[in-house]
Design a protein that fits this description.
493 residues; alpha/beta; 8-stranded mixed sheet; 18 helices; 10 strands
Length: 493
């Protein structure tokens, strides 16, 4: 457990428990970074001051998920080695598919066979939080959860509505559904964010990305990129952060340039491809020495071979192990391998960005009992929840968040439009941060649905035009990055 004491104890509201998601993200690491970042906020800044007010009036509390700390680290282990695989989108053949399914079975077996695996679940996590709440003497649990942390928060509210205080849920899962549904939502959510936020941004700057101003053509061109080139660059082609649109756009433009070079020269090798990239930018008259770096990186990834995994016993790190146990212990999973095969084939055919990636069976032959489902109708007994959601979040989709929102009639939502950021708060915009502060500090809810606009890259927000929001800008960037890494570390939730 970690507790960052309120800066102004005489004005203390209570404890604010935090969880960054995962499942398996370090809550104590998130709390330490959040406490340090918010404490550096300038109290005279028109927006950043809200962060300072929060840490002045709340103790920031974190309970580390079971299996991550202390004398007992939960690790999925087996004496059997994984089999070598290629991305399904690159090799959908039967042999590769059989190896993917073998590895899924191995991972599931290696996790559920560990002692105490049945105790790694959301029900145990929320009871640990409630025990800590009682230990520090708080009548109600105030909470800030991101990603899977929204699932944990909603489960807490449904289990202990009488102890639920002010609850901010940022980048929401559909907690009324299942982990299978969240997993299956992702390829479409990534594709939607790609086509409706990143590509229009690129098309609005043809002078910068050299792809013309027709977003439909850019989308069509990307669908024609060969699977290996797309697959090797998929993790960089879309970042779940609006501040990284420029980076993602450069990656996509680089992939498209490499595809044109490969299509024109079928037998080309890496060195010749890199020469063609240099020639292309020379002919454009580009003076930026780094202009071709994204295309060159895309080419290097395309020509790189997946090194064979050494034949050694299988083991997952504790974060990944906790993630797998919670996913499989919390809700029932579809156990038909043919179902997951059909999902991989459908994803590969429909979605040019992520394809069938990540759709392998998550809980193969999971035999441990699933925890008792929650009655989410009990949330009606609380004062309500405040949900914060980006309209195009690719990790926790807005469609899933809206299902939870529609079910929870005493929830309110702030939706940030034309935005794909996963983990919105602090946003450093008046529309988001002031309303969050009013809620956490005063208990004041906004209306049922509030829409906030997003400044695009190159458009300076009020906060960016004013004084520096933090005392140490470089350290603040590192702390913000650490918070983001913890809320997206699993790549799923």
């Amino acid at each position: 457990m970690l507790r960052v004491l309120a800066g102004k104890p005489d004005q203390r509201i209570g404890s604010l428990f935090v969880n960054p998601g995962g499942p398996g993200g370090s809550a104590t690491g998130f709390a330490a970074s959040m406490g340090a970042l918010f404490s550096m906020a300038d109290p005279a800044h028109p927006i950043a001051r809200f962060q300072r007010d929060i840490v002045d009036r709340y103790d920031i509390m974190a309970i580390e998920p079971r299996g991550l700390a202390g004398q007992w680290l939960f690790k999925c282990r087996s004496n059997i080695a994984r089999k070598a695989t290629e991305s399904f989108d690159v090799d959908p053949g039967e042999a590769n598919l059989a190896n993917i399914e073998f590895n899924a079975r191995l991972e599931s077996s290696a996790c559920q066979n560990q002692p105490h695996a049945a105790l790694i679940n959301t029900d145990q996590a929320l009871r640990d939080m409630d025990l800590a709440r009682a230990a520090v003497g708080d009548a109600r649990l105030n909470y800030f959860g991101v990603s899977y942390g929204t699932w944990l928060g909603a489960w807490y509210a449904a289990t202990f509505p009488e102890h639920t205080g002010r609850m901010l849920l940022d980048s929401n899962m559909n907690w009324t559904g299942s982990f299978d549904e969240a997993l299956l939502d992702q390829p479409e959510a990534f594709q939607r964010a790609f086509e409706e936020t990143l590509i229009p941004f690129m098309a609005s700057h043809p002078e910068r990305f050299h792809l013309g101003s027709d977003p439909v053509k850019i989308i069509q061109d990307y669908r024609q990129v060969r699977p290996q080139l797309r697959s090797k660059n998929r993790f960089w082609a879309l970042s779940a952060d609006n501040k990284q649109l420029e980076f993602s756009a450069r990656v996509v433009a680089g992939v498209l340039l490499v595809e044109r070079i490969l299509a024109a020269h079928p037998d080309i090798d890496l060195d010749a491809t890199l020469m063609h990239v240099d020639r292309y930018f020379d002919e454009l008259g580009e003076t930026d020495a780094n202009a071709g770096i994204y295309a060159k990186n895309a080419a290097r990834w395309h020509f790189s071979d997946n090194p064979p995994r050494p034949e050694q016993p299988f083991e997952l790190e504790e974060e990944e192990s906790v993630y797998r146990a919670v996913v499989c212990n919390d809700t029932s999973s579809q156990n038909d391998p043919d179902f997951w095969r059909s999902q991989m084939f459908a994803g590969s055919a429909q979605y040019s960005l992520r394809g069938g990636h990540g759709l392998q069976q998550p809980c193969h032959d999971w035999a441990l009992p699933v925890v008792e489902p929650r009655d989410f109708g009990a949330i009606a007994q609380t004062e309500g929840l405040l949900m914060l959601q980006a309209s195009h979040d690719p990790i926790t989709s807005s469609s899933g968040a809206m299902k939870a929102f529609d079910f929870t009639q005493n929830a309110r939502m702030i939706q940030v439009e034309n935005n794909l950021t996963h983990g919105l708060f602090p946003q450093l915009t008046q529309c988001v941060d002031a309303k969050v502060a009013d809620f956490l500090l005063e208990g004041t809810f906004p209306g049922r649905m509030t829409h906030c606009e997003t400044p695009q890259p190159g458009e300076m927000s009020v906060a960016e035009r004013s004084a520096q929001p933090y005392a140490d800008a470089d350290r603040a960037d590192l702390l913000r990055q650490r918070m983001r890494e913890l809320s997206t570390s699993k790549g799923l939730l």
